[in-house]
Amino acid sequence: xxxxxxxxxxxxxxxxxxxxxxxxxxxxxxxxxxxxxxxxxxxxxxxxxxxxxxxxxxxxxxxxxxxxxxxxxxxxxxxxxxxxxxxxxxxxxxxxxxxxxxxxxxxxxxxxxxxxxxxxxxxxxxxxxxxxxxxxxxxxxxxxxxxxxxxxxxxxxxxxxxxxxxxxxxxxxxxxxxxxxxxxxxxxxxxxxxxxxxxxxxxxxxxxxxxxxxxxxxxxxxxxxxxxxxxxxxxxxxxxxxxxxxxxxxxxxxxxxxxxxxxxxxxxxxxxxxxxxxxxxxxxxxxxxxxxxxxxxxxxxxxxxxxxxxxxxxxxxxxxxxxxxxxxxxxxxxxxxxxxxxxxxxxxxxxxxxxxxxxxxxxxxxxxxxxxxxxxxxxxxxxxxxxxxxxxxxxxxxxxxxxxxxxxxxxxxxxxxxxxxxxxxxxxxxxxxxxxxxxxxxxxxxxxxxxxxxxxxxxxxxxxxxxxxxxxxxxxx
Length: 477
Ligand code: AMP
Ligand code: ZN
Fold this sequence. Notes:
- The protein is of the alpha/beta class.
- The protein contains 16 helices and 17 strands.
- It has three domains: 270 residues, Rossmann fold (3-Layer(aba) Sandwich); 127 residues, Isoleucyl-tRNA Synthetase, Domain 1; 47 residues.
- It is 46% helix and 17% strand.
- The radius of gyration is 25 Å and the shape is flat.
- It starts with a strand and ends with a strand.
- Adenosine monophosphate (AMP) binds next to helix 1 and strand 12.
């Protein structure tokens, strides 16, 4: 199997450290808000990676962290703690925020048929391991203390930018503005391992005792501590979105290698971004699209999964409603095709029939996925094979045993792609989704007469709307 390794900038033949077992670490969400569909694209890519490894016969030991402390509003250690900021805005406890959005995250994974990793570790449950790692860094001369925080000394670490291949000088310029945050920092690129409860963090709620006074961990140290706790060091594959290359993963490598003098992971894989046509996706920009937004507009989560799989994970993907609608049509067509084809009564004459096309399809499908997870090409192979089956069926040039074998091969393909092609989906047409959304806007504006009129209209069309604490849900009567 070939996988693209960001560290070497090459597609490499994958060889795990231990035969038949793969240690996989995938950076998880910062649980201060719902995941947006960009985040979810990355989790779909990682799910395909895990399923492909299983398909090729490996047992996968997958670990994911949940960031519930220490991720500041700027990745460069400035600003406020994202969770504490959200807690203030929502007037909830920071623990409630973490619990609520963690649950919402797992709900999204379930809807998208993303496998839940075997081990999940919340940053706040791994503080002793993080403290232990920081102490190792002190012992090895990579950590230092200022009046505000404990930092990693990037000046002491050889090859600090080996993953991003950035020039360290450019990096220093890039973070120059942030230097003023702590004038005692030795190098502009140095990053926090531990924040002390001083200045803007005086009243930080999440806090733990440490040899450097009460405080809380920086964002990057949790991944170094959690990955190594479950998988040892080195482990096989580490993944995330491309934004993690220059800061988060660069810092994880520095910490873990500084502590243990051996590589953190052998293969580093990164998913490209989902982008909007003209802008970045952001809560403040009012274009923060979640899975629920898609569902409210009449799409099924599988339509989004299919949309994502039609592109290669290393290519940027532009989201538009038109493109998603195209994916919906493509997905439903594929599914109908499969369901019709394999529900045909198998009463053909018992003639001999070559199984070669089935074997060829399985081979092509596998080759596509084993070529750095080329899901688009795997789907192409599936579509061609179904077309062939249809033609054979029309000409009755097929027998029951062929159809059974074909069905088995398609089921296997579906298991790897996770598209639930053999299951019924309840499709909500997009005009119904639009009406539900319009009704939500009326309700938000307290225009209840208009909202009720829309509910009645939906009812007449055969749809029931339920108002839940998470917003309106629509289903067929
Ligand atoms: P966060 O919750 O911000 O830590 O991000 C969770 C995951 O989503 C990380 O692996 C990010 O690299 C990834 N990510 C963030 N924005 C996007 C995007 N627009 N498209 C794809 N992945 C993203
Ligand atoms: Zn991480």
